[in-house]
Amino acid sequence: MTQPNRVEQTLQVSAEASEWAHFAPRYQALQDWELSAEGVPAWLREWSDLAAELEGTSNRLSISADLHTDDTAVQERYQRFMAEVVPPAQRADQVLKEKWLAVPGYRPTPDTELLYRRVRDAADLYREANVELGVVHSEQTTRHAQLTGNQKVTLGGEELTVPQVKARLDSPERSEREAAWRALAHSNEAVAGQLNPLMLDLLGTRRQLAANADLPDFRTYRWRELDRVDYTPEQCLDFHRAVAEQVVPFAAENIQVIADELGLDSVRPWDYNRAGLLDPQARPPMQPFSGGAELETLAQRAFAGLDSGLSERFGQMRQEGLLDLESRPGKMPHAYCNYFPVTNQPFVLMNVVGSAEDVRVLFHEMGHAFHGFYSGESQPLTWNRWSPIEFVEIPSMAMEFLTLDHLSHALSAEDLTRYRRQLLLGVVAFLPWAAQMDAFQHWLYVDAPQDVTVADLNAKWLELDRLYHPFVNWDGLDDTARAQGWHYYHIFQAPFYYIEYAMCYLAAVSIWRGAQTDPAAALERYKSALRLGSTRPVPELYAAAGAEFRFDAEYIGGLMEFLRGQLRDG
């Protein structure tokens, strides 16, 4: 069992190591280096080591802030690092990028070819004005984490965390679901008064980042910042249309079948949870475990059945304080995997409540962790680890499917069938949500008027929700709860990072389809693709994993037919 003090020990950063004075001399030495084409590899290794240490320090402080959103000292320490260390590091990195790019006669090696191009593009995007503006942006996103991390929900006279109340949405009792939904809506409305102006502030900051870089809008800026060179905004718009045509009717069909079997007159908001669709037999929610320790044991056995190497790495995370799974007050109500590059250690944060969804999320986050492990072992340069973001969710989402055949110890045959069906239906339910999230951001950062208001944001979200979720009946309810569905983590914290989930879910389904024919070969392709890190273009990474980099109507339609067959046969 992971003890909280072990986690805190893992996250410790000395006062000295979180000051700019700790990093500055090493940056200066790199700037002063007499650099020739032959000397670039050794110089890059030194720079990579420094960048890895800086990143690891930042990540430890960030995780601590997420675990202690109600601790002023922890929050201030993280913000001080972001304000006093990150800006001079960004300036120093820019000097080093320009130094590398100016080396006469240099030709990148195969493992640095893409890195060199990314450095060139990043150096071109750099603006001094955006360094300080980036501090403002960080303060604004941290404000969002504080507001949502400290959010409480009162239900039945009891004060609960958001994840604890969301778990009640899985109840077979409609009255319990409705009570939980209304309690969440009330809590969300209470914090909306602070989130709404915060979003407008963020929008202004993001528009200014683009203007400072001499770019027409924030979408163009973010496209370049995220290094999106393998697809265009227009292809994303095609994806939105393809989902509306190919997936929304399929999702509506699935939801109607469930509603008919439950005898529901219509599907109300408390009857639809895309992360955990209602059981058509009205069985109580599956509870495969109780508490983080049991979930760790469950996962350990599943990984042991799938692959000894994966099992060993999960065991390492348990031993080294790299898991913090329990939900508690003052902890950010989200789940993610972070990374400490110097020691090649991933860290998983979750908020478990004992549900089957928690099992899926842990496998998802551990897929990210395996990505960190394998790319870290194979790629010496820290920038070549992980992968472009269009691939980075494939390891996580594929792991959700690859573990399906290794849960018989935790779930009865009936519950395993139920869990599998829920996972497949969840893919279908997720794609309309992903399209809606992405479409909203294309509008927000390109088409929204300069003087856009919160009312405009709400109206656009309502328009999109009616397109992508027409099967949910909101009659008689205040539109506010529906209209403010854009109050979502990624909208505030990770702009334009969402369509990648859809791309990768499609690829994960394709990988799983291959695994049904030859599971050993599929797993080996999976691990081989992870080892490539960020050294190959996105389409090549997809191919290495056994998938195609496509998200057009024909491809999406074919995968939906595959899922339809799996649901029919399963």
UniProtKB/TrEMBL annotation:
<dbReference type="InterPro" id="IPR045090">
    <property type="entry name" value="Pept_M3A_M3B"/>
</dbReference>
<protein>
    <submittedName>
        <fullName>Oligoendopeptidase F</fullName>
    </submittedName>
</protein>
<keyword id="KW-0378">Hydrolase</keyword>
<dbReference type="InterPro" id="IPR001567">
    <property type="entry name" value="Pept_M3A_M3B_dom"/>
</dbReference>
<keyword id="KW-0482">Metalloprotease</keyword>
<keyword id="KW-0862">Zinc</keyword>
<feature type="domain" description="Peptidase M3A/M3B catalytic">
    <location>
        <begin position="170"/>
        <end position="555"/>
    </location>
</feature>
<dbReference type="Pfam" id="PF01432">
    <property type="entry name" value="Peptidase_M3"/>
</dbReference>
<keyword id="KW-0645">Protease</keyword>
<keyword id="KW-0479">Metal-binding</keyword>
<comment type="similarity">
    <text>Belongs to the peptidase M3 family.</text>
</comment>
